[in-house]
Structures are given as structure tokens and as C-alpha cells.
Fold each of these.
Amino acid sequence: MRIRKAIMKDKEGLAKLYLQFWEAHPNIDPLISIKKKPTLKNQIKAAAKDIKKKDEHYLIADDHGRVAGFIELHIKKNHKMFKVSRFGYINSLVVDKKYRKKGIARLLLKEGLKFFKARKMKYVRTNIYFSNKAAIKVWPKMGFRKESMFMLKKI
């Protein structure tokens, strides 16, 4: 298993993982509810756009040319009143169902943390939905702690 930066030839593999992501997050948060039903075609298009973006960084787990997982990394700017001016943000980490429980999430995270350290980040944040029971178990094992809770109300 090799962890590397995503390139355009990975767009279909990323798209298939996006579909698994959306399958695992149905109707969770109306703020991330997508307009069109996810299809392989529209997710390939989205993956191609994401790979091109300068402010999004995708690392993939490459299993002999097959995309087994990915981690999406961002560098966020904090408000200037705060001591920490920038921090790493993991927007998503997805491992193909066929590859789970093989340490791939840990490998992706390890490389993601190297990415942030190379850019002088001292903190990394992510967001997990309460309904994602697997993520709630995994992230603390990888050194993350509960720090806050988002709440939402429809008005």
C-alpha cells in the first residue's frame, strides 16, 4: 500500500469512495445535503474539480493502481485575534469497504500529519457526526480528543 498525492487518473477511484461517503451520511446534516443524487458520473466530475483545487489536498492509499482510501486536507486560517493563526483540518477520511480494518486509515492519517507538520501546523482538527459510530471509535485511537460539539437548529 502506497500513500501518495491524488492525480487526475484517480478521479474515478475517488468518486467511488465519495459514493461510499454519501451512503454513510444520509440525511445527517442539512448543511451538507447535496442537491443532486450522487452518481458515479457527477462524483467523477466533482473529484476532478477537487483534485485541481489549490487549497484542497488529497492523499490516496494506492493498492497497485486502485484507490483504496483517501484523506482530504485543508489549511484553515484562524481569526487574527487568536494565538494560533493557522491549523490543519481533515475534511474527510474514507477507506473503501473492502479495505477496512487493515490500518489504511492510520496510514493516511500518518501521511496527512506529515503534510501538516511540513507546513508548520501545530494543531489538526476534524469533525465527526454522532451517527458515525466507527469514526467515533477510531479517531480517539489515533490521538484525537473530543474538544467541542456543534449544534444545529432549523428555524
Amino acid sequence: MSVRHLLNIADFTQGDIRQMLALARVPVAECNSVLAGKGVALIFEKASNRTRHSMEMAVVQLGGHPVYTRGEEIGLDVRESVEDAAAILSGYHGVIAARVFAHETVARMSRASMVPVVNMLSDWSHPLQTLADVLTMEQHCGPIGDLTVAWVGDYNNVARSLAEGVLLFGGKMKICAPAKYGPDKQEITRLKNIGGNLQVDNDPSNTVAEADVVHTDTWISMGQEKETERRRMDFASFRVTEELMSLAQPGAKFMHCMPAHRDEEVTAEVFDGPRSLVIAQGHNRMHSARGALAFLVRESS
């Protein structure tokens, strides 16, 4: 059986994702120890709160031993090549997971590893976040295929993975970003080929209309600090406010992958209000990670 890696949501079928979500819903007390006696290498080039804690606990809940390593400790392509590191670590561990700057890093790891490689975030995608998002939306809003999901803000790695997930399940995905921050024509074509119903716009009011769930993210991601002032100007009219949320469906929910900057990309009134699912969404990072790990190990054994 070939090794399965989690690099992008679009690499999987709807059935695969359904299996991961089903495993995520299994109570911890009933989890089989698929990682018993195995380590999981957790490599972090980028700082993390939710990802580190959720992944470490998911590994423990599956009977494994997480080994956290900072980027400067392993020194990918500095102390040794990505390929050498992945080949060696795959002899020690049952899974390698990496939170990196460049997506090509996890792609190279997957080609050199004998065990599953998990993308804990790259500049291209954030599949673990989407698994948590889909799990949360289905818990609180209904089947993804029946939902209209709006994204307001930068079309970044989180937005890309979310769009892949919603479209894979046949839902309606509405993306709204300033012109130079949205998906280009090639990316729009790629997303449409996944399925579902895609709409791309530059008008937040039009995008949020009829939405069941509204997502956003920080305007300035790690590594973009030099663009802070320019981005704040460019995104000023894309803030998620109560007024904007009022244009969505009655009972529409708000989601944010965090960390958040209250009164920048979203007002505190929305973020901390009754529409917000951000805490449940954050908690589901652990459950969805557990489901993904269980699926990958089972499929690769």
C-alpha cells in the first residue's frame, strides 16, 4: 500500500475527507492506538499556538509520542537537505508533520519520506485548518454541500484550502478580496474544476449576501510585516462588522482561524458576539488533527 500524505485538501476525494471527519468525531476514550509505540516528528519553521498544542495532544490521544523541533534546530537546507532530514526522520517516526514557509518544503519531504507527511501550514495551503472548519460548520450549520460560505479578506493559504474543502463537498464558495489580493484567473479555473459553485467578487456586501457562514483572517500574515501599512489601507473596507454580518442569512455564523486582531479585520462585537464560532473552531483543530492522523496511518499501513 502506498504512503498517503496530507499536503492539500484537493489531493483527496470527498470520501477520504469524510473518513477523516468521522474519525475526528470518535470520542477520545474510544480512539484506537494507531500510533502506539510510534513517534511523530513535529517540525516548526513558523511559530504556533493552536497547531502545536492540537497536534501534540492528537498524537498523545492516538497513543503516540510527539517530538517538537524548531526550524533552527533541524536547519532544513542549511544543516542538511530537506530530503536527508525527511529520510532519516521517517525511520524514527510514524508520521512527519511540518509547519513551513515554502510549500515546496513539505512536497520535497513527502517525496523522500517512508511515512505520511502532514502539512501543518505552508505559504500555499493549510489543510488541517480546513478540516477543523468543515467539522465546525457541519456541527453548527449543517452539511457543507448545502451551505453558502463567504470569505472576506486576503486570498491566502487558509482561504485556498477552505475553498477547496467547500467546493469538494459541492457547496457554494464566495471569495471577496481587493483586486490584487484575490485569486488570479488560473487559480479560479483550478477551483472551478474541483466542483461546487464558486463566486469571486471585490464587494463585501455582495459576497456576504445569503451566506450561512462568513470567514476572515488577519490581513498581515507572518513574513508580511513590512507590508503592514499598505495592507491596512488596501483592506480597510473589508472589515467584518455587525453591519456586514446583517446582510448574511439570519443566524449566519462567523469564523476566524486566529490569531485575530480585534477591530482590524473584524470588530470585537462580531468576534466575541453570539454569531462567533471561533472557540469551537479552535478546539476542533485537535479533533480534526486526530482524525487526519488516524486516517493517514491506517491508509499507509
Amino acid sequence: MMMTKSLDYKDITSKLDKKNDVITIIGCNDCIRIGGAGGPVKLKELAMKLKADGYNVKEGFLLPIACMEPYLFTITLSHEVNTAIVLSCSAGWSNVKRNYPHLKVIQTVEDLGLMTGDADRGTLKLNMPYKKYNALKSCEFVMGSDGQKIEK
């Protein structure tokens, strides 16, 4: 599974145009939900915050797995939509970008590397971090916390 951490809200909105962007949010309900940076709750929170801040959020979709192309074909985007905000790892983001080349596609997270989870303990372990996050190798995180490290 892929471990991610959320980008700052300002990083996301800095790529948006309040006047011209008609937004759909496409979320993943797999790794990113387990890590706490996505899933149905985060999708709804982001949509509500964007709407409250004056952005034109037209629709939202939650896919079982965003990195698997067949799931992407289960959604039908409104013809008005010109921007997709993707609550998934870079594989899901890339899938959306490749299949909807006419849309502006915005990432919401940064990938840390590959993780394993222990549901009994409620923890995630970063086993194979990307180079930038090598210092976090074998660190444990609270499941569903969006990167809250467990201090030992």
C-alpha cells in the first residue's frame, strides 16, 4: 500500500481559479483512506471547505481504488467540469490525468513510499520510503491520522 501525506490547503487552492474552474473531486477509498489523507470523510471536508471559500465544486466521486483504470470508467463527469481535484496517491492522480487530458488535474497529497498496516494495533509502518523520506524508514504512524508519527 502507498503511504501519503496531505498537502497544505493553500498549496491546493493556489492552483485553482475561483472564477473559471468548475471542479469535480475524485477520491480513492483505499490506501489513502487507511493513511488518513483521503476517503469519504476527507472528500466531503474538502468539498465543503472549497465551497465555503467560494470555489465552484460541481460534483464528487469516491472510487474503490483510483489507481485501477476500470474504476475510473464508472463515473460520468458533468460537461461543465474543467478541473479535477484528486484525493489519491500519484498513481491515481496519474490515472485521472491520463484519462481526462482536457481537465486541469490537481494533486492533494505527496507519496512517502510503501507501507504495511496492522489493523489490530491501529498502526502503519513505512517500509520502503521514497528517497526523500528515507529517514522515516520503519517508522510507525497512527492509522487514519494523515502522518501522525508514533514516538517511541
